[in-house]
Design brief:
The structure is a homodimer of 267-residue chains.
Chain A lengths: L2 H7 L5 H14 L2 E3 H8 L3 H14 L2 E4 L2 E4 L17 H12 L7 E4 L3 H9 L6 E5 L2 H7 L5 E5 L2 E3 L6 E2 L1 H7 L4 E6 L3 E2 L4 E4 L2 H13 E7 L11 E5 L5 E5 L4 H9 L3 E5 L2
Parallel strand pairs in A: 4-5, 4-9, 5-6, 9-12, 12-14, 14-15
Antiparallel strand pairs in A: 1-3, 2-3, 7-8, 10-11, 11-13
Helix pairs in contact in A: 2-4, 3-4, 5-6, 6-7, 8-9
The structure holds a DNA duplex (30 and 30 nucleotides).
DNA sequence: GTGTAAATGTTATAATATGTTCGTTTAGCT
DNA sequence: AGCTAAACGAACATATTATAACATTTACAC
């Protein structure tokens, strides 16, 4: 077949056929460009963009500025930055304060969650600590830190979420003892109740506090006054509660009477 | 494809595609230079710097003056990729044969190793199976497969190796029962002894066979006649042994007398 | 033909990427 | 240490691309 015929075959195609052709392009190179495809198929750039949007839904491509690339997921990668963080700045500040509670030689438990993940980032340069966690994100963040031994709890990988839960996790957790547990929460009631949005996580959280000498709750102000599916305890069960100053002062005063030391960070 | 075409493919790429290409440069060399990449992709040095900054954010590389080097995490990734390609065809063929042993609804154990990782790739479209594994690579490969429930064993993350070992792993494994265990090996003695290069892995392998009704050993011919640090059992303990036809026939005949069903694949 | 829905093209505006300049920092050398 | 050339990063200007809303064309049933 001559080249002119080949080119002609690419024009006036129904959309589905064109999308199939676009998909073939990825076999040769790792990325395609919108402008290149528009020329090749003799359609407007807008049409190509719409095609790529369709392909993004069904195929394994990811749109970028100027084109699209194959989403070749790395091995050993547990996507955790998928979701956009809500109170990113507050969470980082809370994590910085939590970092100050950690001393060399300690055994820590780090719960699942974005705030505890921020803490994990700060723990990379710690010396001689052990981190026990059910979170694959925390584990992959710390697995190359020279001063940190990472113990991953066993269990079922929750679908769409890089962490472990289930009876195996609970059983595994019972094998350990730790100095300090850091936990997040999906909601904190005005009465000081701590809530998780997942029942299995709540059970794990409860056990964490039991096997740790002390525990520390990390939650930004947006969680206060929220409730969620499962209650895993109250602020009376924790030793430290770190939040940001945007939290209502009256609440914090009430919480303090329950027992925990309240630490607030500016944000 | 001629060289001129190859070069053309690197130009006028959307930014994300270029970043992917840059990342692949590290597979060959351990470092890249800004000026070299700028020439290669026909963009300004500033653009390359910005690309490198993006890759650094993704924790893929670490920037240096004049270029960038791989992070430990990515070195591990490429190391794994390289090992997969050693006898890659044989490993894939063996994995394909192993896949045929698996039926819907079964509970499987997948050991650490590159051959079992190839099997994991083939199991992505399985229906309603459960995979129990100490390998983070296997877990990460299967974590988004809709028909697969992944159970990760707990334990200590071995430094420089994405898998779990230790007493916790062994204890965790005891909690489960499986239909079929797939294992690799670092060496198989001419007498049928199975070897691991790590003592802790050997202990885990032994337990795997105990908690699984049947077990299947996957190893290409290059492993036969090799020995390694720790012996975890013999071929008499396994039910299936899948290898490739490049294995010496005399050996296989001897192995068959020990009990396992020997399956060979062309390669 | 005519009506209708889907696909495509067009335009204006916003977002993003790239190149250039220039003052600052760095690595390597004597 | 002090020097030099290279590399870096910030800020700006420019060019490219994305998005949404609307207009147009096409396809197809009746």
């Amino acid at each position: 077949m001559n080249i002119r015929r080949q080119i002609a075959l690419l024009k006036n195609l129904p959309s589905a056929a064109r999308q199939t052709q676009i998909r073939e392009r990825f076999a040769a190179r790792s990325g395609v460009s919108v402008s290149g495809l528009a020329l090749e198929f003799d359609v407007s750039a807008m049409t190509i963009r719409r095609d790529l949007a369709v392909l993004e839904d069904q195929a394994h491509i990811q749109r970028t500025h100027g084109g699209a690339v194959l989403t070749q997921r790395m091995m050993l990668e547990f996507d955790y930055r998928g979701r956009r963080e809500n109170n990113g700045a507050a969470k980082k500040a809370i994590a910085r304060e939590a970092r100050k509670l950690v001393q060399s030689g300690q055994r820590l438990i780090l719960d699942t969650g974005t705030t505890t993940l921020e803490l994990a980032v700060l723990l990379k340069d710690a010396l001689n600590i052990t981190v026990i966690t059910p979170s694959l994100a925390v584990a992959s963040e710390l697995q190359h830190a020279p001063g940190v031994e990472v113990i991953l709890l066993g269990g079922v990988i929750r679908r769409g979420s890089p962490d472990l839960t289930g009876p195996a996790t609970e059983h595994c957790l019972e094998l350990f003892a730790a100095d300090l547990a850091f936990q997040g929460a999906d909601g904190i009631g005005l009465d000081g109740a701590i809530y998780n949005s997942d029942l299995r996580l709540a059970r794990v959280d409860k056990i964490m506090r039991r096997v740790a000498t002390q525990s520390c709750l990390l939650a930004d102000h947006s969680k206060i006054g929220q409730t969620a599916l499962a209650r895993n305890g109250t602020l009376a069960d924790v030793d430290f509660f770190i939040t940001n100053t945007a939290a209502p002062a009256a609440c914090l005063k009430r919480f303090a009477r329950l027992g925990p030391k309240i630490i607030t960070v500016k944000s």
